[in-house]
């Protein structure tokens, strides 16, 4: 099936791009307030919910594992992340947010207004419909 290039589809694609761009811009600004890069903040956010190996972090963020190693090194040097053995496989190291890292990640999430404020203007039904459409677009 050829890609759709009708005006409505093109407008939707542009709007999605604008939302993503604004989100990344605000995320980077919020990260800078905590002396973090956007990439460091994203890794810390992931690790604040669960410990995981570098390879899985890289898969989730769609980047090279070698990049994640450097990011985790810098977060570890600041005391926000610690490496620990995987209880299921002692050969594997997990990266995990420290208590300070979890607090920093929570403050970072609280400071992100871009998505929260516009979404707050939508009704629960509209947010549910938007979520369901996004999931469908992503194949979830």
TrEMBL record:
Gene Ontology terms, MF aspect: DNA binding; DNA-binding transcription factor activity
GO terms for biological process, alphabetical: response to stress
Pfam family, one: MarR
Keyword field: DNA-binding, Transcription, Transcription regulation
Annotated ranges, domain HTH marR-type: 9-139
SUPFAM superfamilies: Winged helix' DNA-binding domain
UniProt cross-references to InterPro entries, sorted A to Z: HTH_MarR-typ, MarR/SlyA-like, Tscrpt_reg_MarR-type_CS, WH-like_DNA-bd_sf, WH_DNA-bd_sf
Entry keyword annotation includes DNA-binding: yes
PANTHER family listed in its UniProt record: MARR FAMILY REGULATORY PROTEIN, TRANSCRIPTIONAL REGULATOR, MARR FAMILY
Name of the protein in question: MarR family transcriptional regulator
Species: Streptomyces agglomeratus
